[in-house]
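Consider this today:
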Amino acid sequence: MSDDLKLSKITARVVFDGGGNLVPEFEITWSDGTVGWSCFAGGITVGPIEKRKPGGDVIPPDGLGAMTEFSSWATDCIQNLEFNDQSAFDGLLERHNFSNWVGQSGCVALSCAFAKGAAKRRGLPLYKVLGKARPWRFPFPNVTIIGGGAHAGGVFPIQEIMVVPIGAETFIEALNWCKEVFVATKMRLVREGYFVGTTIEGGIWPPYRSVEQSFELVCEAISDVGLNAGTDVVLSLDVAANELRDANKYYLGDFVGHLQSDSYFELLSRWISNYPIGFLEDPFAPQDGDLTRRLLARCVDSMRIIADDPVASEPDRIIEVGAHGEFNGILVKPTHCGSLTAVQRAVQTAFDSNLMPALGGRSRETEEHCMIHIALAYGFPLLKIGGFSGVDRISHWNEGLRLVESLGHAELVNVTALIGSGSKLDSHKVVVNAE
C-alpha cells in the first residue's frame, strides 16, 4: 500500500448557503496533498419520512468558522486508511454515524468531497469516476418558472410551476428554451406593471393568487418564444401537498380555501385536463396514497406522477410505492440519501421498479455544482435544480455546458426514458391567447 493513497485529514468549517443559513463544508486531504471539497445545504420543508432519518439536517453548533472538534474526530476516523472505491468510504460514514454530527446533507457533502478528490487524483471528471462506462447522455432540465408554497412565504399554494422541454433535441437547446420561457414570463409581468421578485429556489415571485391564471401566464410565455405548450414544452408542478393538508382537508389559499379530499382530487383532475401538465410531484399528502393511485390510474398514459415526501429516497419505500401503483416517478435527493453510494442505490431501485427517477436539489443551495455529474453518472432522465436566478442555481447548468465541451456532444437521454414509451404527452395541448 502506497502512503500517498492514504487519507490524511478531514477539515470542516461552517459557511453560508444561498439563503444566508449556516451549513458545514468539508475538505478531505490525501497524503500526497490532493484535496476534495464539497458543501450541500438542506431544505426548508421536511416531509414525514425525512423527519425520521438519523441526524436529519443538523445545524452546526460551532457558528461561523472552523468546526475544530468534528474535524479532529473525523480525522481520527479516516487517518492512514486507504479506500479502494466510493462505497468503502461511504460505508465508513455510516458505521461511524457521521450523520449524528453533520446530518444527511453533511454526510453527502463528505461523500462528494471524497469522490471529487478521487477524480482529481485520477485526472478524470467526476461523472466518470462515479459511473460505469456508458453512452453518456444529459438529463432533461426541469426549471422553475414561478415559485410558491414555503419558498414564497405561503402566498401561493403550489410550491413550484416548472417547465420541461420534452421536444428539445440537445441539452443546449433544452436549456435555451427554458431560459427563453423564464425571460418571456418576466417580460409579460413587467408589461402588466408587476414588480418581478424572486423566490428561494430562483423562480419568479407568484404574481397572481389564481393557480389557473399562473398556468396560463407560463403557457402564453411558451407561445411568445415560438414554442408549443404540450409538444415542445410541458408544465411540471411540485404541489408539495403535505404542506397543504390541514385537518383532513387541503388548503389552497384564501382564493380557493379549504377543500375536502374528493373536491381537491377533482380540482387536480381539471388542471390535468385543461393544461399541458406532464409532471406532477407530490399531488397528495403521504397518508392519501389511495387518492394518488386513483389519479395515476386516470392519467398514467399522459404524465409522470412523482414521489418526493412519501419516499424520501429510501429504497424500501421506492419499492413499496411502485408495487402499490401510487407513482410512476421518483425524486431522488442526495441530501435525503446521505452518500453517493445511497444515491446510486436509490436510482437503481427506481429503475428496477419501473419508476422514472428524477434528481433533485434542495430549496437552499451552495457553490457546489456536482448535480449534473451525478445525473450523468447514474443515468437520471430529469434534473430539477430551480430557476434561472442566483449563481447557486445557474452554476449547475453552467457546469453542464462545460461538460458538453469535454464530451464533445450535447445529446439528451432518450425522451421515452423521460415520459414513457406509451405516453400521450405529445397530444396534450392547451390553447392560449397570445398577445
Remarks:
- The radius of gyration is 21 Å.
- Residues 46-51, 425-435 have pLDDT under 50 and may be disordered.
- The chain is about 40% helix and 15% strand.
